[in-house]
Design a protein that fits this description.
The complex is a heterodimer of chains A (343) and B (241). Helices cover 60% and strands 13% of the residues of chain A. Classes of the chains: A alpha+beta (343), B alpha/beta (241). At the A-B interface, helix 5, helix 7, helix 8 and strand 2 of A face helix 1, helix 5, helix 6, helix 8 and helix 9 of B.
Chain lengths: 343, 241
């Protein structure tokens, strides 16, 4: 706050001051030998005016400075009411009252939103479990009547994948914790994912190179399977035409063990990503040049991986060279492992 | 023939699964929801025990009854292994299934072949005596230019080698390939079928690797004097005579 501005805001006092000063001076002018009195009155009134207004200004300024500091230190600004301690003047009391109303209203709305989002998540969760039953039945029927397939199993696999994505999307934005972190074997996890993608990988005659995967990391097995699955889906989508040996994709999956972390690398020989698009690959809805031309991408896969990784306290990074391939690295910090073991 | 109990509330699923198991050489018994409607878990368990099952496929979400509870009670009363089936595919559900005595856990929607693989491994673990022997003995009669000759060899699965007088070690892939051919002796097995089975056993080979493995396998067999055992049928596959 500035004094000048405060004075302007309280201009009525300046006006009254000038009026009373003028009135008294005019009255004094009518008296003989009043020069000394006139001078004294001018100094006294002016002094009082400035002293009084400056005192008021300082007071208000101190109040707002205190309040501002409190607000700045607060992470959840809507809880401000709880933090204001000063309520000396009537105005300060009123301001505090107003903040009380803001707080109660915000909390009510927040609770409502939380409840809605939890309800929605529960609904998606239930819905996904229910839709899985008919999908399972279709798969069973197709297994019993192989002659009636006509490519339906491939499409059912696709439906299954999108359903799974919806489930994890709901989980990723949920407030509650619904994962179970435990010792997870990378070899078995990766094998499960590859088996789930068997049809597509076999179709493109993919060359799989799995090595050094006998490691245990602390993670949720199902979540990890989903994330690796998203990465392999991308490798399949963004593969290059089959080479002279008829091989459409080379997928190398391996783990490295450094001092601070175990890393899981998923490396392909696909079309890669343009250098200027690299920092946006984890953004929601981002598909990049190659993705848009392929028309199969939703831009959800890596975004979900990032969100789920954040929840599980894993790291995820991506390197790529256009025309050479892409590598996604999951990082399992050892510090978070000891935390789990101790707890 | 192993008798498999299916406790599943979805009618289409129960029927299709029974049919699938029967066409894969099992006796399937689907326990319909009507049979235990309104009954308590304890009564259902008694019903299950009376069926004398070799394996129970148990859906966690049964109408009015908690599948986990059934599993626990059934396990207390019977040695019969249980595979839990659920559409709730998360680690917590899996852990609860195992804690309640289930031997294995399969998530819906499952690949039927993978369900069979899980069933086989559970059955193998539970009924160890009934397991087919670890050694496969092969006798071949080979006709070559009108000349008939006989040759024999033994495939030792756990040791990973072939014995015919002398022995030769096989790699994991080669062993699996030879096993597939021996199990289908006399029939032509397509490359696609071999690869499918290798993949299901987590050996992820591509076309080239299979060719290389095949050539090595033949070479190794010849090293110990087994010649002409595997015939390549162009465009069809391989055949162990």
């Amino acid at each position: 706050m500035k004094y000048g501005r405060w004075l302007k805001d309280h201009g009525i006092w300046a006006l009254l001051y000038l009026f009373s000063l003028g009135s008294i001076e005019i009255f004094l002018m009518t008296l003989p030998n009043s020069r000394f009195l006139m001078g004294y009155t001018f100094l006294a009134l002016t002094g009082c005016f400035f002293a009084g207004t400056y005192y008021e200004y300082r007071r208000a300024n101190a109040y707002f400075r205190e309040v501002q500091d409190t607000m700045a230190a607060l992470a959840d600004k809507y809880l401000f009411y709880e933090m204001i301690e000063r309520e000396e003047t009537q105005e300060e009391e009123k301001i505090k009252d107003l903040f009380y109303q803001v707080e109660t209203d915000t909390i009510t709305r927040l609770e409502e939103l939380k409840r809605n989002s939890a309800e929605y998540r529960d609904f998606v969760e239930t819905w996904v479990h229910e839709i899985k039953v008919p999908i399972a039945v279709i798969k069973m029927i197709l297994a019993n009547h192989k002659e009636a397939d006509f490519g339906i199993s491939g499409e059912v696999d696709r439906i299954e994948k999108y359903v799974e994505q919806a489930l994890f999307y709901a989980r990723s934005s949920a407030v509650s914790k619904d994962y179970l972190v435990s010792a997870t074997n990378l070899q078995r996890t990766v094998e499960q994912v590859i088996l789930a993608h068997k049809r597509q990988l076999r179709e493109m005659n993919a060359r799989m190179n799995l090595h050094d995967l006998e490691q245990e990391v602390y993670s949720d097995g199902k979540w990890l399977q989903f994330m690796i699955g998203q990465v392999i889906d991308n490798s399949i989508k963004y593969s290059r035409p089959k080479d002279e040996n008829g091989c459409g994709l080379v997928l190398e999956i391996f783990a490295t063990n450094t001092e601070n972390a175990i890393q899981l690398h998923v490396r392909d020989n696909g079309v890669g990503i343009k250098a200027n698009e690299l920092d946006r690959v984890f953004d929601k809805g981002f598909t990049g040049q190659n993705g848009r031309s392929g028309a199969k991408s939703t831009g959800i896969g890596l975004y979900l991986c990032k969100k789920l990784c954040a929840k599980l306290e894993h790291g995820i990074s991506l390197t790529s060279k256009e025309g050479e391939g892409t590598e996604v690295i999951f990082v399992f910090p050892k510090s978070s492992m000891t935390k789990v073991v101790e707890s | 023939m192993k008798k498999i109990g299916i406790l599943e509330d979805d009618e289409a699923m129960g029927k299709e699964l029974s049919y699938y198991l029967e066409s894969n050489g099992y006796e399937a018994r689907w326990i319909e929801p009507a049979e235990y409607a309104g009954k308590k878990a304890e009564e259902l368990v008694k019903l299950l025990i009376d069926e004398n099952l070799h394996l129970l496929l148990l859906d966690v979400g049964l109408p009015g009854i908690n599948g986990l509870h059934v599993c626990k009670e059934f396990r207390k009363a019977s040695e019969c292994p249980v595979i839990m089936i659920t559409s709730k595919n998360d680690d917590l559900t899996e852990l609860m299934a195992i804690n309640n005595g289930a031997d294995d856990f399969v998530a819906k929607p499952f690949n039927p072949q993978i369900l069979i693989a899980h069933m086989e491994s559970v059955i193998k673990r539970t009924y160890k005596t009934a397991v087919s022997s670890d050694e496969l003995h092969v006798i071949q009669e080979i006709e070559n230019d009108g000349e008939k000759r006989r040759q024999e060899f033994t495939l030792e699965l756990s040791k990973g080698r072939v014995v015919a007088g002398s022995a030769v070690e096989l790699s994991k892939n080669e062993l699996q390939i030879l096993k597939i051919l021996v199990e289908n002796q006399g029939n032509i097995v397509s490359r696609d079928d071999i690869m499918n089975e290798l993949w299901d056993n987590c050996m992820f080979v591509d076309d080239n690797t299979l060719t290389v493995n095949m050539t090595r396998l033949k070479g190794k067999l010849e090293e110990i004097g087994i010649t002409g055992a595997i015939v390549t049928k162009r465009g069809m596959g391989y055949q162990l005579q």
